[in-house]
Amino acid sequence: MNNPKEYSNKKFYSVKEFYKYTKDAFQSLKYMKQALKTGLIDKGFQSRIMLAVTEVNGCEMCNIFHTGEALKSGMSNEEIKLFLSGDLAHANVDEGVAIFFAQHYAKTKGNPDIEAWNRVVNEYGTKKSLGILGAVRAIMFGNTSGIAVGALVSRLKFKPVKNSSFIYELKILLSTFIFVPIAIIHSNLSKNDDLFLDAK
Known about the structure:
mainly alpha; 9 helices; globular
């Protein structure tokens, strides 16, 4: 299942971008948890959203983890392979808008068109849409850190990843421990400056 071609699009994000994804993830986490708790989204739907984002970012570590989660949720090997190849023609029609938004969010580095977000809200309603946004933002944080950590692990195995550096990998790894507590505080203080959360 782990075809190297799946990761040719591996993205490396700056420390500044990583902080944004960390803050956004913690700002939206409660909405994802609430949507899961109330059944607005289920584990399978969450897995498909996260696999779609992971395909765009090319995070091998996240691929391994979320492939396992997807299998637990009932997705077939073939369906997972298609998601990871970017082929969404098979996607459940009821989930299509969310899946394409997830990819759009990743491709725009967390700066999607507001029209795209409005389409999600019109399709699913505000509460479910915020749950979807929470899943997208959670995996953006996971991908950004996972890519750097994965590259560091490869380097320690004497297989450095192209376009990465030891300094970059170390900065992201150390930033994780610094950013998470700061992001939790920041996200709680900046609730009202989030364009997407304002939509609720």
